[in-house]
Write a structure and sequence with these properties.
binds flavin-adenine dinucleotide; 5-stranded antiparallel sheet; 242 residues; Enolase-like, domain 1; Uridine Diphospho-n-acetylenolpyruvylglucosamine Reductase, domain 3; 11 strands; 10 helices
Length: 242
Amino acid sequence: MIDLRQISSLKKITEKGSYLLIGSMVSDRKIESSRLIKEKIPLIAAVANNIGDPQVRNRGTIGGSLSHADPSGDWGPCFLALRGSAVAVSVKGKREINSDHFFTGPFSTALKEGEILEKVMFQIPSGASGYSYIKIERKAGDFATASAAVQLSLDKQGRCSYIGIGLGAVSDRSIRAVKAEKKVVGKQITDDIISEAAESGSQETDPYDDMIRGSAEFKREMIKICIKKALTEAYKMAEGLS
Ligand SMILES: Cc1cc2nc3c(=O)[nH]c(=O)nc-3n(C[C@H](O)[C@H](O)[C@H](O)COP(=O)(O)OP(=O)(O)OC[C@H]3O[C@@H](n4cnc5c(N)ncnc54)[C@H](O)[C@@H]3O)c2cc1C
């Protein structure tokens, strides 16, 4: 049994060039209240705020949650939407794992035996950008029934220059809605495009029927609502800044 709590280097939040680096042992509470994170990548703070309740956020860490890889966890969709990367460390050295390759199945990651997650890295969005995290939950503090994290940027002509859509609780792992992103990127965003992306994102999911949070069909409908709302909010925010 190895306790990582005394390793102070794993508890740091730093800015390096155009990246934010968050140590694996940084608590959700510290992330939620970090001025640097709120200023540079507010989506991350917003996601932290959606996790469990204050007690859970005081104990839970971003690295523990990502390594645990719960398909309904809140960090997965955020990690994917921002196309972050994970730095794994072992006695053999370090390696970077892109978010697209991090989750390998339910409660499974690309971390190998002997490796720990040292930190996660996120590129700081530039230009007119907006974000949103929409989580449907049965009751306050619950894991998601369905959730969508959206990060987007607009170019000077108002076209979408970056879009990341990460989905939670609608597959055996957190997933990126790649086809939905393709409906939006490079375009002037309209209500029709948002609806098409939400439909497409819902088709990319593979939820399972569950006695507690509902049927697969219900979750597919819920994720459509999450994507639509998150895209609309993120776009409005970015448009307000452009
Ligand atoms: C009541 C309750 C409600 C919750 N609600 C939510 C919620 O709404 N949304 C949500 O996303 N989560 C939720 N969680 C999960 C919680 O936020 C934590 O993420 C989770 O419990 C993991 O806790 P931890 O960070 O202390 O990691 P640990 O429990 O210490 O570790 C989890 C796993 O990851 C491994 N691990 C930990 N750190 C590393 C590392 N650096 N490198 C490699 N492996 C590592 C451990 O060995 C273990 O297998 C909830 C948990 C509880 C108990």
